[in-house]
Amino acid sequence: MSQAEVIVAKNQPISRPKAAEPPVSTEQPNLSKPQRKEAKWELVVRGSILPLTVLILWQIFGSLGIVSKTLLPTPYAIGQAFYDLLMSGELFRHVRISIWRAAVGFLIGGSLGLAFGLLVGLFRKFEQTLDPSVQMLRTIPHLAITPLFILWFGFGEFSKVLLIAKGAFFPLYVQTFLGIRNVDSKLFDVARVLEFSKFKQITKLVLPAALPNILLGLRLSIGVAWLGLVVAELMGSSEGVGYLILDARQFSQTAIVFVGILIFAFVGKGSDSLVRILEKKLLKWRDSFNG
């Protein structure tokens, strides 16, 4: 290199590589405890606006006589009927027997639905043998099969629990089957490389990947179990919330009918909320759109 080139090179500004810019964080900052409480209360307030508005208008129209109290009693009259049933102990007796029927029926039907869903999802031979018959039975409505259950098992508890179990079986069966079949096949290739046993594949790979569908099936099964409970208790019973509604209808006690409907609604919503809490705990790893 000549002396002139050396001088020119010395006078050239040294170009330094630009420092990499820190990545822009798209995650929301963690909220403090007071902020989280405030956000929860805001959600509660927003969710309460519509029901409270409906109740206020309903009470006003009923008090003014615009709507017949026999056809549509006011919220105050429904609350009074609820209080009377609660104080007499009659309400607790009916709710207890209904929850027992729904729980036993759901445990039987849900357990069988989960077991059959796993078998059909994991083994193609079971799918070819069982799935066509199960899908055919799934299309039979509750009301169509109720007379047959009465002829076979009478009006006792067994027929009611069996009817609830029938309803709870199919949602969990279908969702478990879909969850397993939606597992990425590449995961099984990885399991073969790691030499997982069949049991390890099911517990460490299949069930965690299918868990969102299984929990959805659990929520749907609980909902259908409550529907089955209504049909079971209306077909012939001397206890339960369904019997309470039927008995009140015969004596035109519309307020008590509304009490029974609200009990079904609140208990059903409570059980669904418990499953949603379970979803949040078990599916923390899932990054999904929150709206």
Automatic annotation (TrEMBL):
Domain of life: Bacteria
Alphabetical list of InterPro entries matching this protein: MetI-like (IPR000515), MetI-like_sf (IPR035906)
Protein's membrane topology: Multi-pass membrane protein
Subcellular location(s) of the protein: Cell membrane
Membrane spanning stretches: 43-61, 99-123, 135-155, 161-184, 205-231, 251-268
Signal peptide limits: none
Alphabetized UniProt keyword annotations: Cell membrane, Membrane, Transmembrane, Transmembrane helix, Transport
UniProt region (Disordered), positions on chain: 1-33
ABC transmembrane type-1 domain ranges (all copies): 95-275
UniProt key word Transmembrane: yes
Primary location recorded for the protein, binned into one broad class: membrane
PROSITE patterns: ABC_TM1 (PS50928)
UniProt cross-references to SUPFAM superfamilies, sorted A to Z: MetI-like (SSF161098)
Entry annotated with the keyword Aminoacyl-tRNA synthetase: no
Sequence similarity: Belongs to the binding-protein-dependent transport system permease family.
Name under which the protein is recorded: ABC transporter permease subunit
Organism whose genome encodes this protein: Paenibacillus anseongense
